[in-house]
Design a protein that fits this description.
binds 2-acetamido-2-deoxy-beta-D-glucopyranose, 9 strands, nine-stranded mixed beta sheet, about 20% strand, Rossmann fold, alpha/beta
Length: about 280
């Protein structure tokens, strides 16, 4: 009991004080609505779709979730969702359906349908969206998250590297280092999942992205590399991580797929796993 109490205190003490809690949009009537917005970033036109909870309350600090599409994808495809039996993801990576109107979603469009992040331009795009959204809407600035599959996972990783003080946690589905990593030595809570049969971005690439944050978060590497349990995924919660910076790794035996299910289930496990990971922070 005493140990538990001590760890809870440690966890609370570890929440970085650089985070302010409420965005400047709190307490003000909003002007933003559910639609596509455009912004000029480094002279280029950039688009994103915004989704605000039903019955938005200007005095409630919401979670803010960035959802980045895969290569060849688009913001609209993330909003609509794609066939999960054909390697697609559920709408908003399945998070909006379980968020119960507790989160604002930002869905960006990549240049050339990807996240090359040339010269950090996609991170600058993130900075711009964050500023606009938080000046207008009420966000708990301790609770900003980023997720994506494949190239979208790579972009979430790039943000974890470059914006560790802005991003509370990432969920990286079958990702790799494709959008760079400017930084990567400061801790960010990290959820990753990857298939051992990934034919697009092999498992070694996923592991090296993970291991960047195993190191940054001060976690202990397990004695042996976690393996899938047949057609079931195996979740490993790393031990020894700095308080407030957990790391969870889910290994499965599938291919490059955001909608992998466990044996006998038709429900992809990424949404519930990611949401559970994000909502451990309050
Ligand atoms: C943030 O907003 C909540 C809800 O309106 C309020 O209870 C809390 O005091 C605010 N926190 C700060 C630091 O202003
Ligand atoms: C959804 O959110 C509402 C309002 O915050 C709350 O009253 C309700 O219990 C929540 N429902 C679930 C299933 O969590
Ligand atoms: C994984 O892919 C990378 C990049 O294509 C390649 O360099 C590496 O050899 C591959 N590793 C394995 C184990 O196949």
């Amino acid at each position: 009991m005493r140990g538990l109490f001590a760890s809870v205190c440690l966890l609370l003490a570890a929440v970085p004080s650089v985070f302010a809690a409420n965005s400047t949009g709190c307490g003000k009537p909003k002007t933003l609505t559910n639609k596509q917005y455009s912004v000029q970033v480094n002279g280029k036109n950039r688009n994103y779709i915004l989704n605000i909870p039903d019955n938005y309350d200007q005095n409630r600090p919401y979670r803010l979730v960035f959802t980045w599409h895969q290569r060849g994808g688009s913001a609209q495809k993330i909003v609509n969702g794609e066939d999960i039996t054909k390697g697609g993801a559920l709408p908003y990576y399945g998070l909006k359906a379980i968020a119960n109107n507790s989160a604002i979603f930002v869905v960006p469009d990549g240049l050339n349908s990807g996240w090359g992040n040339s010269g950090g331009e996609d991170v600058t795009f993130f900075d711009s969206m964050l500023k606009t959204v938080e000046a207008d809407l009420c966000v708990n600035t301790n609770l900003r998250f980023s997720t994506g599959f494949s190239y979208g996972g790579a972009m979430s990783y790039a943000l974890a590297c470059a914006r560790p003080e802005q991003i509370r946690a990432v969920a990286i589905l079958s990702g790799a280092e494709l959008s760079g990593c400017s930084g990567g030595s400061k801790p960010v809570a990290f959820y990753g999942q990857h298939g051992t049969s990934d034919s697009v971005l092999n498992i070694s690439m996923g592991r090296s992205v993970r291991d960047k944050f195993v190191a940054a978060n001060g976690c202990t590497k397990p004695a042996s590399e976690p393996q899938p349990n047949g057609a079931n995924s195996v979740k490993t919660v790393y031990s020894g991580c700095k308080a407030g910076y957990p790391l969870t790794w889910v290994i499965h035996n599938g291919d490059h797929n955001p909608s992998q299910t466990n044996s006998g289930s038709s429900t992809p496990f990424a949404p519930a796993n990611s949401w559970e990971f994000f909502t451990q922070f309050t």
